[in-house]
Amino acid sequence: MQYRRVGLVAGLIVLAMLGGLTSAAGVAEKELLYPDGASYPRVIRLEHSGPANGRVLASVGTVDGSALGIIMESTDGGATFQQVGSIADPEGAGARGMCCGTLFELPSQVGDMPAGTLLWGATVGYKVPDAERHTKQRLWISRDLGRTWTFRSDIATSPNQYNAWEPDFSVAADGRLVAHFSDESDKPSHDQKLVRVRSADGLVWTDYQETVKNTDFYVRPGMAGVRKLADGTYFLVYEVCNLDEPMCSVYFRTSADGWDYGDPLDLGTSVRTADGKWVRHTPTITVSPTGAIVLAAEMLVNADGSKAEGNGKTLLVNENDGQGPWREIPAPVEVPAPDNHGCMNFSPSLLTSVDGSTVLEVATDLVDGVCHAFYASGPIPPAR
Fold it and tell me: pLDDT for 180-189, tens place per residue?
């Protein structure tokens, strides 16, 4: 990703000051997900966990230097959440740095990990001094619905002092676990590129491959996110920074098997609305049971790059597997005027309802200088 992370100082927050904030008309009041500072929210619904299917799990990373991944659970469809677990990675503690957490439920067995095993991946060690730094993408697993966590493996370790970021998981058609991440270590050839590795057991990772790169050193593909479409196609969304200007526009690629995404020099297809609006920075998606792809990103801009009226309060929807124009719908969580900021609407997360009529959003915003995660649900209006 383009380097724009901001150090945030955690502080005491009066919960009454954080609750009671309303979103756009027609959506639920937004609520605080976790009482302390938080970043990189992720939300999933359990689908492979037997009697627990239907529970909604959310995760955030702490921002106070404690290097914790926090696991929250909802048993009422995302109306309320309670903390049920946490991950304390020693490789990120002691000011070494941890960020970019992601949460995933295995849809099928991988090695000795049965379907329903929860995976937590994060970037650690990016604040270590250059002379000692080898940033890692780390995998933790839970076999009890997020209550307890065990370290599983280092997915990748940077070969030099340059960082890598933002792991994201999927299971390919051959049953192997795939991890995408943003890699800055290939200097002087590329400032950053999207890469992937895979594993048959979650322990040993092999077959390092480039997924998206550019011949221009300064162009930075990053922040991968993968979801499966109704027909089994794998849909990969990501940002590409510094292509035309020092901003990050959103693109996507698809794969039939979840491993081969084609020529890495192909930047893919850009996301645009019918009137030319586009989104910048930190894209994430969810796929509705009806087949609609719902996309969140930090910023919405007009065709000329100026901030759109709906910036910070808009999601995009596409019912044609990403092809053609995307349409705008109100975002359940409004974040006023995000502008390439390390907290405000940075890497929000989405989950549609079981019937596809509504979408739950978790997004971050600053309150008294501290980044906090908020959630709310709102309708997905039908296409006209």
Answer: 999 999 999 9
